[in-house]
Inverse folding.
């Protein structure tokens, strides 16, 4: 679940070497599956359950806008975890983006259904995401974006070798009328204050 007690500020994280990552296994009772027709509904349900969207219909609309223009990529890049009972309970995408002006690998929209959190699914999902990138022949630098309210997930990203992005405003940040440097410093202070309280 996202922590809605903190001010919500977007952040970016970068990692220099896509091929260097910890290897976590799924616990018994779960398996990886790739996107299949209809999984937009499962994606929307999971992302709404963690608090990223107010309604499933909002999440479905977002999925269609963000991912469906690249529908042919979904079975190769959009990863899900399914329980042995057939329920889709987590998702991540080995995606791509131009936040910094050139196309780079991007870890995108990671979420685990709250009813299945605390079992190591998030870490196994990230390992799988890196493996998908490698299977697609991608290498080098990658990035992700997140928000302060996902500080628990950010802690996992740190453990995977991602670093806070503290440079100049990215070319395609798309946030107007804000001082990027000031806002970014505040965001990382919020995140590390929360992590230090754990």
């Amino acid at each position: 679940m996202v922590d809605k007690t903190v001010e919500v500020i977007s952040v970016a994280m970068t990692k220099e070497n896509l091929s260097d990552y910890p290897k976590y296994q799924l616990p018994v009772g779960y398996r990886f599956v790739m996107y299949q027709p209809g999984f937009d509904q499962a994606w929307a349900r999971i992302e709404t359950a963690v608090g990223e969207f107010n309604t499933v219909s909002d999440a479905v609309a977002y999925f269609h806008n963000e991912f469906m223009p690249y529908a042919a990529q979904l079975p190769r890049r959009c990863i899900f975890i399914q329980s042995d009972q057939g329920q889709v309970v987590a998702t991540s995408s080995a995606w791509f983006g131009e936040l910094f002006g050139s196309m780079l690998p991007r870890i995108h929209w990671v979420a685990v259904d709250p009813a299945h959190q605390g079992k190591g699914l998030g870490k196994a999902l990230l390992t799988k995401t890196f493996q998908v990138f490698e299977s697609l022949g991608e290498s080098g630098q990658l990035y992700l974006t997140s928000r302060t309210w996902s500080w628990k997930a950010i802690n996992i990203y740190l453990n995977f070798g991602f670093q806070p992005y503290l440079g100049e405003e990215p070319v395609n940040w798309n946030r107007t009328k804000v001082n990027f440097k000031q806002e970014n410093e505040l965001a990382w202070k919020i995140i590390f204050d929360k992590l230090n309280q754990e």
